[in-house]
């Protein structure tokens, strides 16, 4: 596997996703606060949820990154890179809103206690955190540590896959925000 291409692909996905998320912060208050007819979250609540989910995923990514770097001192990175293949199909559904049932923990539900500017600033910082982890693990080290991901039965995933998952999760909610905006325009 070309690990450098793989890391670059994750960086591109992060950039496109985070840029699109950032665009939602420029919407007017009516759009941001439209309550969808299905009783779901407003766009502002979705943005807060993206931040909260990123926050908790980044805790796992940080731990995983440290363990992967430690493992790089003892494990055969070349062998790991030769034997690794990314199963993109397993992950793609994560980015599709409504593709499967997703029960999120209560601590990832928006509370409405943060300002839009605060959420935007924190999400921007989270983007840079992801890039920093990719830079630290720039030679393939992220393959050397796996953590279980129960969402969509992904199983044990490496640190790069966790970062990609974070980006896909935001992408999933971009679709949800588009649906909210579309419903508001129709009404």
TrEMBL record:
Species the sequence originates in: Chryseobacterium sediminis
Superkingdom classification of source: Bacteria
InterPro entries named in the record: DinB-like, DinB/YfiT-like
Domain DinB-like: 30-177
Protein name per Swiss-Prot or TrEMBL: DinB-like domain-containing protein
A Pfam family hit: DinB_2
């Amino acid at each position: 596997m070309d690990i450098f291409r793989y890391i670059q692909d994750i960086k591109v996905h992060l950039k496109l996703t985070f840029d699109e998320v950032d665009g939602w912060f420029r919407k007017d208050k009516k759009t941001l606060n439209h309550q969808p007819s299905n009783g779901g979250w407003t766009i502002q609540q979705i943005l807060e949820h993206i931040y909260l989910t990123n926050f908790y995923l980044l805790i796992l990514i940080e731990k995983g990154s440290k363990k992967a770097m430690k493992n790089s001192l003892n494990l055969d990175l070349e062998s790991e890179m030769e034997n690794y293949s990314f199963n993109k199909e397993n992950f793609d559904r994560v980015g599709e809103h409504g593709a499967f049932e997703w029960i999120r923990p209560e601590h990832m539900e928006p509370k409405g206690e943060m300002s839009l500017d605060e959420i935007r600033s924190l999400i921007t910082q989270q983007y840079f955190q992801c890039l920093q982890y990719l830079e630290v693990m720039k030679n393939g080290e992220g393959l050397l540590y796996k953590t279980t991901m129960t969402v969509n039965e992904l199983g044990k995933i490496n640190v790069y896959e966790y970062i990609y998952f974070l980006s896909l999760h935001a992408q999933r909610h971009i679709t949800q925000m588009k649906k909210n905006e579309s419903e508001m325009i129709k009404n």
